[in-house]
Amino acid sequence: MAKPLVGVLMGSESDRPRMEGVSKILEELEIPHEVHVMSAHRTPERVAKYATEAEANGIKVLVAGAGMAAHLAGAVAANSLLPVIGVPLDASALNGMDALLATVQMPPEIPVATVAIGNAGAKNAGHLAARILALGDPEIRQRLGARREKIRG
């Protein structure tokens, strides 16, 4: 199996159904990835270690989804120079607005590319990760183009 190019993180096992769209898109585009559950609040040392070592382990793009306070993407971005895509999840009484604001409001020099709340955002995170990778990989670019033509029907 090919070495993962994308690291997909989620703050809780209960986030897995909301984040499945990321993996689905990456699998359809034949982009190897790995999925981990880790929390910026419950396992901060694990998050920092993963983010710090990701690039050396061959990861090119990080995707982090979390609900409520949603600091996972920010914690990852603070510990890596890789592109980070944040997926705010609708896991609270605020229907994801809290996660959206926490994900998008990053301090200067710690960017997180933020997509829509929930399932649509997870799918777009997969597509955005693929587009980032396609900048340096003609095969991924070709598969993206073929997918685009297919959906145009």
From TrEMBL:
Substrate binds at S12, D15, R42. One of its GO terms (biological process) is 'de novo' IMP biosynthetic process. The keyword Cell membrane does not apply. This is N5-carboxyaminoimidazole ribonucleotide mutase. Its EC number is 5.4.99.18. It is an enzyme of class 5 (isomerase). The keyword Nucleotide-binding does not apply. Pathway: Purine metabolism; IMP biosynthesis via de novo pathway; 5-amino-1-(5-phospho-D-ribosyl)imidazole-4-carboxylate from 5-amino-1-(5-phospho-D-ribosyl)imidazole (N5-CAIR route): step 2/2. Belongs to the AIR carboxylase family. Class I subfamily. It catalyses: 5-carboxyamino-1-(5-phospho-D-ribosyl)imidazole + H(+) = 5-amino-1-(5-phospho-D-ribosyl)imidazole-4-carboxylate. Coiled coil: none annotated. SMART domains: AIRC. Keywords: Isomerase, Lyase, Purine biosynthesis. PANTHER family: PHOSPHORIBOSYLAMINOIMIDAZOLE CARBOXYLASE, PHOSPHORIBOSYLAMINOIMIDAZOLE CARBOXYLASE CATALYTIC SUBUNIT. Catalyzes the conversion of N5-carboxyaminoimidazole ribonucleotide (N5-CAIR) to 4-carboxy-5-aminoimidazole ribonucleotide (CAIR). Residues 4-151 form the PurE domain. GO terms for molecular function: 5-(carboxyamino)imidazole ribonucleotide mutase activity; lyase activity.
